[in-house]
TrEMBL record:
This is Methyltransferase domain-containing protein. CDD domains: AdoMet_MTases. It comes from the Bacteria. Pfam families: Methyltransf_25 (PF13649). Keywords: Methyltransferase, Transferase. It comes from Hyphomicrobium sulfonivorans.
Length: 222
C-alpha cells in the first residue's frame, strides 16, 4: 500500500488506516513492537526536562514515560487526527493532561515552537514510526534539529531481520505492508552517516537477531 509523502494526503491516509485500528492498536502491537519499554526505561530526562515523542500514535508511550519520569514535561505529535483523538482521551483518562501536551504535526516539517512553544527538547524519541514515513531521512534530521545541546534522540524500529529465517522475514513484511509499514534496511547506514556529522555520536544495536534496530543519538553540549 503506497503511503503519501507528507501533508494533508498523508494525514488522510493514516486516518484511513487507523480509524478503526486505533481501538485495538495497543492490545495487538505489544506482541511485535519490541524494544519500546527499553527505550522508555533509558530516556532518563533531566529534572524539568522537555521530552518529545515524534509520531505519538495512541499516546501509550507518552503515558508510560510520564509515569516513569514525574519531574519531566512531555510533548507529542502525530499526523493522524484519529490517533490524536484516542491519545488525548487516554491521556485525560490517566490524569496526565496537565503534563502531556499533544498536537497535530508532520515529522518531516514540524516546528517545536509553533506546536508547543518549546525551543528544543532534552530527549526526543521515535518508536516504530521511521518505517511509516517515506521521507524518513528528512524526519530524522528534523528531529535532530529540535534536539537541545547535550540531548539525546532515542530510536527503535524494525531492522533488516537478517538473522531470522527467510520465511519469517517475508511473512512479516507482507503483513506489515497492509499498514503502510516498510522496514528501512539502510537505517544502520543512515545512522553511521549521522554519526559522522559534527557534534553528534551514535550507539546502535541490533535486537533479536536483527528483528529491530535500537539507537541512541547524542548531541554534544554547547
Amino acid at each position: 500500500m503506497a503511503h503519501p509523502a507528507s501533508g494533508s494526503s498523508a494525514s488522510a491516509h493514516m486516518d484511513a488506516i487507523y480509524r478503526r485500528q486505533r481501538y485495538i492498536y495497543d492490545a495487538t502491537r505489544k506482541y511485535y513492537l519490541l524494544g519500546r519499554d527499553r527505550l522508555i526505561g533509558e530516556l532518563r530526562p533531566p529534572a524539568d526536562g522537555a521530552v518529545l515523542e515524534v509520531a505519538c500514535g495512541t499516546g501509550r508511550n507518552l503515558i508510560a514515560a510520564a509515569r516513569a519520569y514525574p519531574d519531566a514535561r512531555f510533548y507529542g505529535f502525530d499526523i493522524s487526527a484519529a490517533m490524536l483523538e484516542t491519545a488525548q482521551a487516554s491521556i485525560n483518562g490517566a490524569g496526565l493532561d496537565g503534563r502531556i501536551q499533544i498536537a497535530h504535526g508532520d515529522a518531516t516539517s514540524f516546528s517545536a515552537v509553533q506546536l508547543f512553544g518549546v525551543e528544543a527538547f532534552d530527549r526526543i524519541f521515535i518508536s516504530y514510526a521511521v518505517s511509516m514515513i517515506p521521507p524518513w531521512r528528512e524526519a530524522l534530521q528534523q528531529a535532530l534539529q529540535a534536539l537541545a545541546p547535550g540531548g539525546q534522540l532515542l530510536l527503535v524500529d524494525f531492522g533488516d531481520q537478517a538473522g531470522l529465517p527467510g520465511w519469517f522475514k517475508r511473512g512479516l513484511r507482507r503483513w506489515l505492508a497492509h499498514f503502510s509499514v516498510t522496514p528501512r534496511d539502510t537505517l544502520a547506514d543512515e545512522l553511521e552517516h549521522i554519526a559522522a556529522q559534527p557534534g553528534l555520536s551514535v550507539q546502535c544495536n541490533q535486537l533479536y537477531r536483527g528483528y529491530a534496530v535500537y539507537a541512541v543519538i547524542s548531541k554534544d553540549p554547547a
